[in-house]
Amino acid sequence: MKPTLLQRLLNGSLVLQIVIGIVAGILLASFSPETALSLSFLGSLFVSALKAVAPILVFVLVASSIANQKKGTHTNLKPVIHLYLIGTLLAATTAVIVSVLFPTTLLLTATDIQATPPEGILEVLNALLFKIVDNPINALVTGNFIGILAWAIGLGFTLQHANESTKNVLHDISNGITKIVHMVIRFAPIGIFGLVAQAIAETGFSALLGYSQLLLVLVGCMVIIALVINPALVYFKLRTNPYPLVFQCLRESGVTAFFTRSSAANIPVNMELCKKLNLHEDTYSVSIPLGATINMAGASITITVLTLAAVHTLGIEFDIATAILLSVVAAVSACGASGVAGGSLLLIPLACSLFGVPNEVAMQVVAIGFIIGVVQDSAETALNSSTDVLFTATACRAEELKNTQLTANS
Asked: Is residue 176 scored above 80 in pLDDT?
């Protein structure tokens, strides 16, 4: 019996289904904003489901991966981490250069947003240390992925000496949770339909016009990283055309991350993509959740661009040395940015303090960040999350290439 159009859509490409959900959300919000807002719970449900399953998925996957790791197995984590840190620093540096070439002036107004930003780099590092030693139950409940990773890695190494039956049970639990994740991901088109409908119905298209130049600088920097800097890093490692892999990561990871606006919530999607790319599970089961925490190229761009926009607005002069220092601080601070929507914005006052920008002004910049967050935070998360898979795949394939060359020479 020939399948119907609906059956073909349901069994077809998830990306195509997501695109249909996006178009449907835009059309609904354009013609009936009230109906769109009433269906916004679909997006909230989807994101909540992803956020609910992501912490336990990371904990069990990482612990199981390390516990079941065979002796002599190479996980390629070191080159992945190197790529994460280099990519984040290059993103911040790119943001400095573009901000100097295209200075942006902000319309600063009073804001009633209440927040408590970090006062200095030592406070950020102090917070990171305390997140590492967080209670494991509290880490799972609050989505503290640094604490989850610390406990999962510790448990995984201690269970390497456990009985095989114990390791098999942990492996079976990991497989079970992974199947639950697959079920959640199948609802992505419906969830993204709700998210898009809500965003357009609440803000419309005109709300972003007042910050068009700022958005162009932000998104322009992210495009440069995604289509120039990242491919250059991949080519440097693999010496092959990087763009097929780059576009696949952007299409299959970046699209969902753009609409969920959460690196943490996109972890299950990235895990599935890594499996599809036939990457080493011992590598990606650790590098993907780790990337959601420390691979923050998009966040470092946001912090740097918004800070320099405030500096330019106030007419504060700065030199190249200070700008480079800003890049370093932004890169380090971005590693501590939360894996949820808007996580990088409260770190802006930290960078602003380098230039003597008053905290009141810095918090107004944070408010502007929330206003443009419909586009900025979405693009930032898409860059962060897709790069997690890109760099993991690059490290794995570089290792495979190296082993192939060694075998050919021997």
From this structure: yes
